Amino acid sequence: MNVVLGVGGGIAAYKSCELARALMQRGLSVRVAMTSGAQEFVRPLTFASLTGQKVITGLFASASPEATLSSAVEHIGVAQENQLLAVAPATADLLGKFAHGLADDFLTTLYLAFRGPVVLAPAMNTHMWQHAATQANLAALRARGHRIVEPGDGYLACGSVGPGRMAEPEAIAEAVWAELNPRRDLEGETVLITAGPTQEPLDPVRYISNRSSGKMGYALAEAALQRGARVILVSGPVRLDPPQGAALVPVRTAIEMRQAVFDHLDPATIVIKSAAVADFHLASVPSHKVKKTAARISLELDPTPDILSEVGRRKGDRLLIGFAAETENLKAEARRKLETKNADMIVGNLVNQSGTGFESDQNEVVLALRTGDFVELPRASKRELADLIFDQILKLRLARYATQS
Ligand code: PMT
Question: What is the pTM of this model?
Fold first, then answer.
């Protein structure tokens, strides 16, 4: 199989030499296309020597003395000859151009002409990564079905420490391999996923909510779709685009979420409750804005419906997976929720440590099982963990078949 490796202009370009080798070790033929920025960091000759193929260095033969194009429409030929486009490092500039369809060099033109799967490994300074513009571009690219290999946390070339460091070449090569050899082991399943926070109004302008971004739930939806499942995504208010192919059911409050879950429960074979549902709400919301007349006010809140418990009581043959967001006693709390809510598995995560839990791109979880066992998963991107969580769900499915037969 043939892949194009697009190399953007960032210091992580040197790691892409290692990536080219990792791809070739998997038997893939690798054609490298470098932006002009990339050529400031690594010489095309390095990639040519590693891959044994001419490196594409520009859109026009006259643009570069090292140009290697054989035709004026080479980007179309390259798009047709290759099964996958991987871009590493995908700089903030490239993500922006891909998201908005700008095509002013070979790689961005190739991107528009390309019809196969796309894998993007971003790398940049932490502030650039966290910028709203970059995150909006990523959301658009993710929603287009591209696989984003999240950058890790760590020491960056610019001297800062935080997210933005390109994923390791082996992890990117694994993601490329998974895209080329998609697992369809969730075919025939309908997965109902809840994601994001709920907002509980206090009056027409104020509400109570929490820090959930929806990233964990949307990563689960993306993984399930890629593995062949039908996905119903019941989502609280988030700033993410739903993955292509998911049936999105937007909700705001816990009561709306409960209604949406039961409206769509019938076809579901797997239910995953990753949403951070408010536990309390104002049962009777005033229709007017509450005036600032007193120095202090107190709120009397009522419990919201416990959706997970209710599904647990009515789950039938479905596999029911809950989450537990804890700040201490993770395993004990996960086990308690497993039992009291009649779930088949609880995904426990600590939400008071930096870089995991709410809002972050990574997470670190422990799976509590009905056998009494715990499976500890390593810190990884929410997308990678989503696959590991589905691997465990499929083991539960197999174990259930085994006891039934
Ligand atoms: O969205 P992100 O920013 O990516 O963050 C991910 C996450 C931290 C929100 C996610 O990993 C997570 O932990 N989700 C569950 C959050 C939560 O509400 O946990 P809990 O321990 O309070 O609730 C336990 C379970 O009961 C959860 O499955 C929850 O969806 C469910 N629940 C809770 C209250 C309620 N009224 N109804 C429910 O169904």
Answer: 0.85
